[in-house]
Amino acid sequence: MSRAPVWRAVAALAVIAISLALAFTTAPRLGLDLRGGTQLVFEAKDSPTVTADSAATDRALDVLRQRADALGVVDPTLVRSGEKRIIVELPGVLDPRQAAEVIGRTAQLAFHPVLGSGDPSGVRDENGGLLKLGPPAITGDGVRDAVEQSDPQRGPGWWVSIEFRDADAWQRLTGAAACEPQGDPQRRIAIVLDAEIISSPPLDPSIPCRTGIPGAGADITGSFTHEEARDLAVLIKGGALPVPLTLVEQRTVGPTLGAEAIDASAKAAVAGLLLTAVFIVAVYRVSGLLAALALACYGLISYAALVAMGATFTLPGLAGFVLAIGMAIDANVLVFERAREEHDSRRGLRRALDLGFRNAWSAIADSNVTTLIAAGLLFWLASGPVKGFGVTLAIGVLASLVSAMLITRVLVQGVIGRIGPRASGLASQGVVRTWLARRNPRLMAARRVWLAIAGGLAVVAVAGLAVRGLNVGVEFTGGRLVEFATSKPVPADVAGQAVTRAGVPSAVVQATDDGVTVRAARLGLDEVARIEQALEPHGGAVSKTREEFIGPSLGEELRRNALIALGVAVAMQLLYLAARFRWTFGVATVLALLVDVIVVAGLFAWLGKPIDGIFVAAMLTIVGYSVNDKVVVFDRVRELWTARRGFAAAVDGAIVQTLPRTVNTGLGALFILVALMVFGGDSLRDFAMALVAGIVMGTLSSAFVAGPAAVVLARFDRRPPAPPAGRTAPRDRTGTGAVV
């Protein structure tokens, strides 16, 4: 007797036990779009003296980390991305103006002697006058410490106390200035920060000439508030950046919006999981019930894997986690449908189930590889939170293999000998397969009609792209997008007038029942504050819930990466299918993929929906799902196509035999997506809409585009493929139809 079932059971228990331990002992790491805060992305630029390379960026990163710590931000995250970019995440910081000003300022500090006043080429002081400055006597590197201070005995206000490393340099600078007469500009010391004079105090009359101020300390005075004095001390103490930094991306999300996103995703996951479980139990009965239990284990395993990796959960990542629940049922459906085909009076349920797992493995492996390709491209080329979608999708694919091929197998094999054939759900072919086998449709006889209809849909979609165009979001165009929540509705025309009065007449304004969205190519942080104030008389309590800024250079890069990702995805699918099957199958699949992608893009063009990073993630998921479905069909074609059976008949047979799997898997994913559309916000709703359209098109294009195209291309490659080794060919037969 084989001991393989025992070892499978031990492995399944070990995986579940480890996952439980990780899930209950490791706290998830939430992204800023879920817990609230500000994310800043800086890009290092060359200076006249320093080249912005990885070493200079690392030095700048150390300076930024000191500034973030000095600001008192709890658990800030600062990492270098690539050679020249730094990502700064500041939880709880909802004022991007302060964050960007303090964190990213170059902070080149210097103390200069004043040579005169009134020179047109001079620098304006804090009072607006022009001062001619001498070379810097002390730079920021000569400052040991800086701290903000106040003393009621000295009067109101704050100042910054500085401690120098070289007391002699400070004494020489002040001793020379003290030799000038009272009231002379040359008796002042100019403190310059980033080419701007922040203070130029005159020396006290009591300071003797040539003696100067002894000691290693000085005070920078001015009309500072506590926050201004603290920020100045942070900049001085942190030191100057070795290279200038440019803000290329900024995202701010309020904590309320993040909490709502988590709540919506949890509701969608529970609702989708329940609907999927009810459906699969109705179709496969006891086997379906055990698969539903394995599906719950899948959720546990994938969650545990993500927290163990230290992955950051983002809003798109949660959407990917929820969506993967619906897609995880695919492997179970493939196995159960294959077991139904293998079962007859001479071959018992246990043997049929073993053959189902063995013969379905090829299609399961091929289809999951195509999804992993899409996930890998998202992680490689996407930016920001969309990377999280690629990570969760990839982890979900791997966890679904463990769930279906290990846990489901252990559970079903453990009870299959203790229940009757009818209760197992695997003894009959089911209503759909029985009806199809009875009708025996010959779809390929009308292949030119199907291709013409697909071409017509593509033409309508292209017309939408040409007439309406794509509503490209700021992520690809560059600019700023701000969402305001209002306590009462603001009409669109009133909101537009308020934004115009705030000084941004070119902004695109959208109003809903509970908020206003403003988007513009050039929208500064000061204008955002004015818009918020202008909306208050009309919207009651106004609060900023989300803000995104994308610099022009980054927008162009993201747009280029999105096109590269889609192009590489299609090319890699073609190469993979050509290697695994035949080149004609790969070309047919790519043609069907193009129809899928064009129709979804055309739908968004006609509806005016935004095209952003989440939409690109949806499109790459559609590519993976659509190829997944076509892999299953062509895998069956490879089995059925022989010298005695023509290729068109083999394609017809493959479509008929795999349609129950396609319908059952598609419904599992659609349950999840409908739940996301009901419970999710606008971005998740658009994401779900794109995937619903893509899944429907991907399912139809397998039978009505990829199949007919493969038949048309078959005349260029007439050699039938050799049957796969070690697999039993499925038998065409009808069943009782007792199982739904």
TrEMBL record:
InterPro entries: SecD (IPR005791), SecD/SecF_arch_bac (IPR022813), SecD/SecF_bac (IPR022645), SecD/SecF_CS (IPR022646), SecD_1st (IPR048631), SecD_SecF_C (IPR048634), SecD_SecF_C_bact (IPR055344), SecDF_P1_head (IPR054384). GO terms for cellular component: plasma membrane. Its main location: membrane. The keyword Protein transport applies. GO terms for molecular function: protein-transporting ATPase activity. Keywords: Cell membrane, Membrane, Protein transport, Translocation, Transmembrane, Transmembrane helix, Transport. The chain crosses the membrane at residues 264-284, 291-312, 318-339, 360-382, 388-412, 449-467, 562-579, 586-607, 613-634, 663-681, 687-714. Residues 58-114 form the Protein translocase subunit SecDF P1 domain. Residues 249-412, 532-713 form the Protein export membrane protein SecD/SecF C-terminal domain. Belongs to the SecD/SecF family. SecD subfamily. Forms a complex with SecD. Part of the essential Sec protein translocation apparatus which comprises SecA, SecYEG and auxiliary proteins SecDF. Other proteins may also be involved. Forms a complex with SecF. Part of the essential Sec protein translocation apparatus which comprises SecA, SecYEG and auxiliary proteins SecDF. Other proteins may also be involved. Part of the Sec protein translocase complex. Interacts with the SecYEG preprotein conducting channel. SecDF uses the proton motive force (PMF) to complete protein translocation after the ATP-dependent function of SecA. This is Multifunctional fusion protein. The lineage of its organism: Bacteria, Bacillati, Actinomycetota, Actinomycetes, Streptosporangiales. The gene is secD.
